Amino acid sequence: MTWNRSHLLDLQSLSVAELTAILDTARAFKAINERSIKRVPPLRGKTVVNLFVEPSTRTRISFELAALRLSADVINFSAEASSLKKGETLRDTVRNLESLNADIIILRHGASGAPHYLARFARAHIINAGDGAHEHPTQGLLDTFTIRERKGRVAGLNVTILGDILYSRVARSNIWALLKLGANVTLCGPPTLVPKVFERFGCRVIWDLQEALKDADVVNLLRIQHERQRVTMFPSLGEYTALFGLNQARMKWVKPDALIMHPGPINRGVELEGDIADGAQSVILEQVTNGLAVRMAVLFLVNGGKAAELN
Ligand code: CP
């Protein structure tokens, strides 16, 4: 197994072997999560801090549960109720957390590069739980894990990512993981949100929804990231839904065995009709389940865990 990093900051810099090491380790943790006794000891005596400066449901809760399953002590830092509100810097906040012996700090922050900044001075292991529009590595990993588990492979699959690509850290992490593992990635949405410059990543960019859907083995839908848009990128949500929303009528363009994915939170009736989100092709809640195993794997590996310990 190839994993020697003490932080997880992005997927862009990971090798195929490193990506595969995380996915394989997550498979072992998924099996542990299906046992009646789910708690294992690798992080006993360690302290994990969830430092979320932006809102989260899935990522924060699954990191908390992942750390508890690994027997760590967990602190959930509430930014709103913290001294960040009084002007304390992120650096001073982290220095103070380290003085309380934080071993692993999981950071979600609105500024791209914030986890990389922490990693330059922190003694603790740093895990990126989403930085601005840059990356959301554990989401990219859990999406890739779900595809690999459901389809048996990633290489050669056609994956369409549909929606607000420009402002999406989920899109970027998916793009890096999927391309490295040999998938064909198509990006689709309004031209203002899916600029041609993404072709430089190695993706196909098309603005015709039917064309983007017809050969897809996986359709991953993204929410409009209003919180990051500084200017109006399309006339109205109604127009977005009319042109790019996935509804039952458009499902006839989608292969019957294609997976419907969404990182959450879903804006039902905007990018995705509710009955498709809840339908037979949807793996959206499986993504959440797999996120727990992936986050256990990441915590385990950055703390120096070795796969042999899981046998
Ligand atoms: N997918 C995701 O990051 O969801 P949360 O914002 O709820 O963590």
Characterize the structure shown:
The chain has 10 helices and 9 strands. The protein is an alpha/beta fold and 311 residues long. The chain folds into 2 domains: 16-135 and 291-310, Rossmann fold (3-Layer(aba) Sandwich), CATH 3.40.50.1370; 137-288, Rossmann fold (3-Layer(aba) Sandwich). It has a 5-stranded parallel beta sheet. Strands 2-1-3-4 form a 4-stranded parallel beta sheet, with helices on both faces. Helix 1 (16-33) packs across helix 5 (137-151), helix 1 (16-33) packs across helix 10 (284-302) and helix 2 packs across helix 10. It is globular, with a radius of gyration of 19 Å. The model has no long low-confidence stretch (mean pLDDT 96). Residues 56-59, 130, 136, 139, 263-265 line the site of phosphoric acid mono(formamide)ester.
